[in-house]
Design goal:
- There is one protein chain.
- This protein is of the alpha/beta class.
- It has two domains: 8-84, Rossmann fold (3-Layer(aba) Sandwich); 86-184, 3 Solenoid (UDP N-Acetylglucosamine Acyltransferase, domain 1), CATH 2.160.10.10.
- The chain has helices at residues 17-29, 42-48, 63-78, 205-208; strands spanning 8-13, 32-36, 54-58, 82-83, 86-87, 92-93, 98-99, 104-105, 110-111, 116-117, 122-123, 128-129, 134-135, 140-141, 146-147, 152-153, 158-159, 164-165, 170-171, 176-177, 182-183, 192-193.
- It is globular.
């Protein structure tokens, strides 16, 4: 893969695994040259990485129902930093889809026609966002989530791995959908949904499969 033109300077705020991953993605597949990706004092950042020269991406996951990422993003914006986004070249983004600022969209996402994605949204890898759906601000969507057509995801919500939403479903703001949750009707704001946990069978796997060492 050829290296993209590094015409922009980027400051990544965050010291988690997401920050490390974001650094690699921006470096390999974007026009940004990453200068730093650690939490540093804003006073220091303004001196060493002035807003006139650097853009910012806040690589923080869904802590406090996405409040921490949102708060740091707003601080950066108030200090005059332009906000960066990353969209993998391996994403299908329909021409009619709309994307807000400060978003991170990983590989193998499908964003269909007339989808609207708000500001400060993370779509981890392999999701399907169905046509005419809306994802509100500050939402975090984990991997392999299916959002069918005409759905609405309220701001600050979190959708866990393999969650599935049927057509015409609305999720209120500040909701948490755990891994594997299936939703076929509207969910009120502030709801926490969890799928039943798998039970461990009384018989062991070697015994079930008649394994003889």
């Amino acid at each position: 893969m050829s290296q993209p033109d590094k015409s922009k300077k980027l400051l990544i705020i965050g010291d988690s695994a997401f920050a490390e991953v974001a650094c690699e993605y921006f470096d390999a597949m974007s026009p940004y040259a990453v200068a730093a990706f650690a939490i540093i004092a804003w006073e220091d950042s303004e001196q060493s990485h002035p807003s006139s020269e650097y853009e910012v991406y806040v690589a923080v996951v869904y802590s406090q129902l996405n409040r921490l990422r949102t708060r740091l993003m707003n601080v950066a914006k108030a200090k005059g930093y332009r906000l960066a986004s990353f969209v993998s070249p391996h994403v299908f983004l329909a021409p009619s889809a709309k994307l807000g600022e400060h978003c991170f969209i990983f590989e193998s996402n499908v964003v269909q026609s007339f989808v609207s994605i708000g500001n400060n949204v993370v779509l981890w890898s392999g999701n399907h966002i169905g046509h005419h759906s809306t994802i509100g601000d500050n939402v975090f969507v984990s991997s392999h989530v299916v959002i069918s057509g005409f759905c609405n995801i309220g701001e600050n919500s979190f959708l866990g791995v393999n969650a599935s939403l049927g057509n015409n479903v609305s999720i209120g703001k500040d909701c948490w959908l755990g891994a594997g949750v299936v939703v076929s009707k509207d969910v009120a704001a502030g709801s926490l949904l969890q799928a039943p946990a798998a039970e461990i069978a009384k018989v062991s796997a070697p015994r079930f499969f008649k394994v003889k060492d």
